[in-house]
Amino acid sequence: MNTGIVKDVFDQNTFRLLYYKNKVYLLPFLLIALAIALVYLAVMPQINDYFSYLDEEKNIKERVNVVKSNTNTLLAVDETNLDEKLKVVSSALPAEKDFGGILRAIAQAATEANVVLGDFSFQIGELSASKTKVTNAYPIEISLSINGDIVSSKQFLRMLMERFPLSEATNINVSESTSTIKVLFYYKPYDSVNFDPGRQIQPLSQDQLSLLNQLAAFKLQ
Asked: Which fold has domain 79-188+205-216?
């Protein structure tokens, strides 16, 4: 007799025996497996969507709170006071080449220092970084001569710095009756503003307010 056929018959009988013995458990097992598959395929995505909705709701609430806070901040702003602060900043660091303001400041400083102005020369554009102390601003270098000694030159520069506190003298040559001075003035165009309604508007810090008060004390142009 073929042993292979006997083995197949034996395996089939064994399978039938196991089936009849355990068929009472087979249906519940299949139902449990089907339930697990349904949970994985149908319920889990909904659970993930639910948590995504919660995150989105949280983000929306945060943006709404930021908008409310920004609205309250803007409503509390004194426009007159804000205009004054902007005027102070613009006078100390103009947004464009303010030749008129520079010349007026030089003339007034010369008058108060009791010196006579001589020749002028302008240099506009890039200067080496070692010559400038104000970063992120464009320099205007002016060379001028005055009829006066070292004391008069110091007085002239002091009066000039009161009108342009961010200006700086980079070179002074003094003779018996004439001084040649190089002064840097600065200007900086306004940065472009990209309004983001979800970004918190920060009020001026105490250090910034203190700096504004110091600038306001100068004789700005």
From this structure: Alpha-Beta Plaits (3.30.70)
